[in-house]
């Protein structure tokens, strides 16, 4: 397993969100996106309570891990009670577990949940939704391997990018150490990726911009998201 997130990358990392893949051909789509140049896979978990949608459970994650044991799985928990999901997803092969600051009652609560994930030997992430004040997140940034700024209101793929969240990136980026990543998720595509990297994000999630296009275009799309100038 190559750890793509703990060392400062020399170019933006790209994480396809498998929520937009063909679930009946999930391993195949996921493998093809990695072969097209993606660095890791973003796995969206929705509980139908924290967000108004259901996605997948640990069984799907375990099957994906079995099919692609070398793929780094960045598991984004859009759930009201993240604690009860940590072990099931760690056992299912998650390499990173992120949860939302909105479900934390206090700074200490966020730090305690972070510690629970660390105890499972998995990387940690904290996520903030568009309407939430960045000040709520800043006191705990130091504790996590990854900070994820949502650029849509979570629940569904294929939504429009909310540019106001770029200010959060500019605010958090100077606090990010070399062994931490700053991720953005939602509405990232060829038209918005450059805005995100200019604001300091170094890990870009993209669902519909990759899996929503024909497979023979994925390598070029991933290069474009990274800001590579070369043409196919
Ligand atoms: C939104 C999810 C995102 C989503 C991104 O609730 O957290 O990861 O899959 O999809 P796109 O890239 O299509 O906006
Ligand atoms: Zn996500």
List keywords for this structure.
232 residues, alpha/beta, TIM Barrel, 8 helices, globular, binds D-xylitol-5-phosphate
Question: How is this structure best described in words?
Answer:
- The chain is of the alpha/beta class.
- It has one domain: Alpha-Beta Barrel (TIM Barrel).
- The chain has helices spanning 26-35, 58-67, 83-91, 107-119, 166-172, 193-198, 208-211, 218-226, and strands at 13-16, 41-46, 73-78, 96-100, 123-128, 146-150, 181-185, 203-206.
- An 8-stranded parallel beta sheet has the order 1-8-7-6-5-4-3-2.
- It is globular.
- The chain starts with 12 loop residues before the first strand and ends in a 6-residue tail after the last helix.
- 47% of the residues are buried.
- The structure holds D-xylitol-5-phosphate (DX5) and zinc ion (ZN).
- D-xylitol-5-phosphate binds next to strand 2, strand 8 and helix 7.
Give the CATH H-level superfamily.
Aldolase class I
Mean pLDDT: 97
Q: What amount of the residues lies in strands?
A: 15-25%
* Arrangement of strands in the largest sheet: 1-8-7-6-5-4-3-2
Q: What characterizes the major β-sheet?
A: 8 strands, parallel
Number of helices: 8
Which second-level CATH architecture applies? Alpha-Beta Barrel
Please give the domain count: 1
Number of strands: 8
Calculate the terminal CA-CA distance, rounded to whole Å: 29 Å
CATH topology, by name, is TIM Barrel
What can be said about this structure in brief?
By secondary structure, the chain is α/β, with parallel strands linked by helices. It is built from 8 helices and 8 strands; from the N terminus they run βαβαβαβαββαβαβαα. Helix content is 29%, strand content 18%.
